[in-house]
Amino acid sequence: MLCCENGLEGLHTPHIHSVFAGRSIVPSPRTVLWEHGSLQTDPGSAGDPVFVLPEGHPDRGERIAAYHFWLFPATFLTIHPWGLALRAIQPLGQRRTHVSFRCFAGRAAPRPPGTLEALRRTAEEDAHVIESVQRGMESRLFRGGRYSPVAEKCVHHFHRLLAGWMAGGRGAR
Ligand SMILES: [Fe+2]
What's the 147 CA to ligand 1 centre distance in angstroms? Predict the structure, then answer.
């Protein structure tokens, strides 16, 4: 659950990830919720390759460095101009999780040097903070907070689906 929350919100990124240090928190310019998934767009940072979108594309004219797709319950597909990054999260128990991470090269743009190393470091930073959050949630002092209506639409959507699934239904709508 915490791995998915982490992947669905960007509030932590400037504080946790060295590659995003100093970058201001920019909520996704475009967030789409589906019955069992979501999409967020990412303008990226200066120097990141961006999509050159064809005439008539709904995002034509927008600066988009990545499309972040999430499929319930725990699959992330991030499409960059240079290819696809796939992350599949598999719970192994209440306190153990396995994360599979694969990158596939595309043809639209070359992968910038250092991309794989940055992705690996980002994944390690996420794992570290997720374990820290897990410890915090187990504290007697932990109290849940309110969702950010701007930055946590997808987390809220995930929690509604999860609650519906745990209740035995197909997920809240
Ligand atoms: Fe992260």
Answer: 18
